[in-house]
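Morning!

This is the sequence you dropped in the shared folder:
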Amino acid sequence: MLVKKGTMYKELIAQFPQPAVLVIGDLMLDVYLKGASTRLTPEAPVPVVDIETRTTVLGGGANTAINVKYLGAQVSFCSVSGQDEEGVKARTLLDVAGINSRIITCPQRSTIVKTRVTAGHQLLTRYDSGTETAIDRDTEEAFIRLLQQEFVRHDAIIIADYNKGLLTPAVVAALRTLNLQQKKFIAVDSKRLECFKSLSPSLVKPNYQEAVNLLGLPVQAHCRAQQINNMGADIATRTGAAVTAVTLDEEGAVIFDGQEPVYCCGAHPVISPNVSGAGDAYISAFTLASLAGADLAAAAELAATAAGVAISKQETAYCSWQELNASLSVNDKYITDLAQLQHISNMYKAQGKKLVFTNGCFDILHSGHVNYLGRARQLGHILMVGINTDESIRRLKGNDRPINSLHDRMEVLAALGAVNHIIPFGSEQDDTPAPLIAAIQPHIFAKGGDYTKDALPEAGLVEQLGGEVILLPLLPGRSTSMIIRRIHTTPVLKLA
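The structure's back. Tokens below.
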């Protein structure tokens, strides 16, 4: 579906920058302590982790604001923090991200921090700190005044409620009054959706666990979509929502228009997913797609794609509009735009994939090419192939080449399972693949064994960018030039 409707989806994404979105939610920091563990502590049978890196990113409702921002929209974020070092750090990160942060500081509260300790890719423990009780009356009144100022300035509201004390009944009542005065698109992501029924939300996004808790259903390991599919009336009654998107992990999502299930969206498979932030990316993309005029099926597909990008990253993450656009192009083997090539490459790297790049004319594809490309692909996860344009080949090999046009050469290459992407290159100023290498920054640059590293003008650039040049032996007796010579020298049989 993404391949057939990719152009339509990209037109919707192009409209993401138009609306102004207000995100209201709990402010948190996610801290990642990463290292290696090779021994147990003598105090107890637990691993000792030698911390190598410490990363601090925005979490909770702030991560929803990050997703909205990087998907291209204008965004403001309203929340409460402690008057502490962690609160300062959170506000600094919001400012760096270009988010209009309207944060009320409360001396009686501590900013919420979730700290994860990992050894390699294994999460060992998570410990939380910060105030999770309801905000006090003075802070509540100040926060309501803030919402009264910001509500009218925005086209849509996203409520990212983690039940950490910010969204009190009085705050929700104030939002209801504001929405009655000036109707907005309101999207709600919360573990307690029934608390927001009075808002008559435009969209709610429970995950499976939240949905079964809301409905009092048993948890199922399989056939979750079938279990949820008939519950539209109950969900609508309990949430008052116009649209409900129930996310079901690997089973995708079921979308309800009022009480009726209208679409079932498949999940995007991700190896070793990190689910932190998946819901933030999903509701952000669904909201922006809806504001851009997408139907529910298109909004669901874009939201699922955004969530897939986010969970492919190793930390609480966002999906940018460039990554979303690139992800929609992953199934497109042909890439002609260098900026798009760079975004796709960055997305693959964020997923931990090793990129292999090679280039050539591939004028008459033969078994030597197929063998070489297969072995190049085995060097990593993704093989990107630069292919000389017709004009470039004529400059390099003479006016009698190429035998086959660029379109035909690309079409034949695209049929090979080893090849992920094909990018034409070449100009009067530079017929080397250096611009492609600069955009991709591949882990490996593969070339045939008929070259030497010293004879490759691109080798220095590859190594300067941190890549490795690998020369692969070629099958003997296979080359385009030999095939052409054989054609020219083979006698033509004349019919009597």
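Headline: The chain has a mean pLDDT of 89.

More detail when I'm at my desk.
O.
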